[in-house]
Write a structure and sequence with these properties.
The chain has about 240 residues and is mainly alpha-helical. It has helices spanning about 5-15, 25-40, 85-95, 95-115, 120, 125-140, 150-160, 175-190, 205-220, 220-239; strands at about 45-50, 55-60, 60, 70-75, 80. About 60% of the residues lie in helices and about 10% in strands.
């Protein structure tokens, strides 16, 4: 059995008062979510089924039986992760692998709360997924009473890197390996939700609204916009 780190032992202690007669990785998952819920009021209304039984009917369809079956269901604000997934992640990446996947799903719940999902606007899921990786990094940095080791951070980043893909034409594209790893490390390094496009002050909806205001101003004032562009172009030439 893999030796657990101090931080994840604390997560186990936090979960020990619940009715979790489950595997150590299931207890780590429960402890992780309790820490995240304490840190982020935006996800305290989220429920979870961990571990979730394959075939379980949810508001978003049935739970699958894959080696990586973990998802957030916006219809019920619920998270589902199977025991098979917990064991596969824990055995390969350690308890931190379990923790980062739980953090990623809770990050989706935060995105849902502050802005809705960008896939409903731009067709692709990629921004939602990469931003969830960023928020997961913030959670891993802050939703713990003591810092996790640099090796644990790299293990978590490696997991996300390894499940990245190069399928940009797929609606459910999750981002390239490099995108996912860098987003997670960025969130962890900055340690602030405002560093991701997923906070109350900085979210995709506000970015779109601001862009719309700028576009409308350009339409209403074409001459001033043309002058600005010409001035900018002249500056480039001079330099």
């Amino acid at each position: 059995m893999r030796q657990f780190s101090p931080i994840l032992c604390i997560a186990i202690v936090l979960a020990s008062s619940t009715a979790y007669a489950q595997s150590p990785y299931a207890i780590v998952a429960k402890g992780t979510e309790e820490l995240i819920r304490a840190y982020d009021f935006r996800v305290r209304d989220v429920s979870s089924v961990i571990p979730a039984s394959p075939g379980l009917t949810t508001a978003c369809g049935k739970v699958g039986d894959g080696s990586l079956t973990a998802f957030y269901c916006p219809a019920s604000r619920s998270i589902y992760v199977t025991d098979k997934t917990l064991q596969a992640l824990g055995n390969k990446y350690g308890p931190e692998g379990v923790a980062v996947v739980v953090a990623h799903e809770y990050a989706h719940a935060r995105l849902h709360a502050v802005q809705g999902f960008t896939k409903n606007i731009i067709w692709s899921s990629v921004i939602d997924e990469v931003q969830a990786d960023c928020v997961a990094g913030v959670y891993m940095k802050n939703a713990t009473p003591i810092p996790i080791s640099s090796q644990m951070v790299q293990n978590a980043a490696s997991l996300l890197e390894n499940i990245g893909d190069y399928l940009p034409l797929e609606k459910d594209w999750h981002g390239t390996p490099q995108m996912r790893k860098r987003a997670f490390l960025h969130g962890y390094g900055e340690g602030a939700l405002s560093a991701c496009v997923a906070s109350d002050d900085t979210n995709f909806k506000k970015v779109i609204e601001k862009s719309s205001d700028v576009l409308q101003d350009q339409i209403n004032n074409p001459q001033s916009e043309l002058n600005r562009i010409l001035k900018w172009g002249s500056g480039i030439i001079k330099n």
